[in-house]
Amino acid sequence: MKKEYLSAPLPFVGQKRMFAKEYIKVLGEVKDAKVFVDLFGGSGLLSHITKRQRPDATVVYNDFDNYRRRIENIGRTNTMLDRLRDILVSVPRLKIVPKPIRERILDMMAEEEAETGFVDYITLSTSLLFSMKYATTLEEMRKHTMYNRIRRSGYDANGYLDGIVVESCDYRELFEKYRDRDDVVFLVDPPYLSTDAGTYNMYWKLSDYLDVLTVLVGHRYVYFTSDKSSIVELCDWLGKNKEIGNPFIGATRKEFNASMNYNSHYTDMMLYNVA
Ligand SMILES: C[S@@+](CC[C@H](N)C(=O)[O-])C[C@H]1O[C@@H](n2cnc3c(N)ncnc32)[C@H](O)[C@@H]1O
Fold first, then answer.
1. What integer best gives the mean pLDDT of the chain?
2. What's the rounded Cα separation, in Å, for the pair 200 and 194?
């Protein structure tokens, strides 16, 4: 029996591990579907679970962030963790890493990157940075205070992506490939609507978030969101007020830029239609 992972084998912010069991139940309700397309694959956890539950189905994982590169480099990351354990031997658990030791760690990372071209900074972050803080580059790592939160054992991802079709493209492109099939289920877990998308490299504004909804119409889907985005509330409201359309068509807009402090700005608007 192949191991079934119920959480991503390497740290990934936004992975749907808390829904793993519920998601498995949903799969039991779509036995006739033959293709599952994970449009926003992230760590690939939903693709992995789908393939384990439905080995007969085609499962397409959209690896937009190149998570598979992190998986492929797991051996190297484990070796770095072994070396870190040695370097950190004199630092008590959860305590700040003193400057000279921190410098050794940063040098080790720089060397590894120069030699191999890849360091899994996200995974190393969970062993070195304050909870939920992540660096994605050496430069970012340098800016953080380090703590000894070293993981006691290595990671493994044996067979995690076995049998899965891996793609890496914009979700719209992948959707176009499969949209006309009637045996497809789309897994739709877009990035959080926010000004800070954590460890992913992009900024998702409301219209990007709303664009994703067009994928759902007329297709079978499993969609994920959070109450932070208020998207379900918005759709409920639109459903009840179908006739309203855009009340600002024909309005004139005046803007006023306001600053709260050096990194927080917003724009106040006045829209008027008095003709
Ligand atoms: C919330 S995460 C998905 C998490 C995933 N379901 C899991 O369990 O690990 C959203 C993912 O969408 C990716 N993404 C961002 N923009 C995208 C785009 N235009 N097309 C496809 N994926 C995109 C992000 O990089 C991120 O990996």
1. 94
2. 12
- DSSP string covering 80-120, please? HHHHHHHHTTTSPTTSBPPHHHHHHHHHHHHHHHHHHS---
Q: Does residue 160's CB lie within 6 angstroms of at least one atom of ligand 1?
A: no
Q: How far is CA 117 from CA 73, 77, 126, 142, 261, in A?
A: 11, 13, 21, 18, 38
Residue nearest to atom 22 of ligand 1 (CA): 40
Residues 8-23 have a mean pLDDT of 97
Beta bridge partners of 265: 259
Question: Domain limits at 222?
Answer: 1-246
Residue with tokens 């051996």: 75
List, for residues 120-145, the tens digit of each pLDDT value: 999 999 999 999 999 999 999 999 99
Find the 63 Cα to ligand 1 centroid distance in Å: 8
**Is 252 inside a domain boundary?**
no
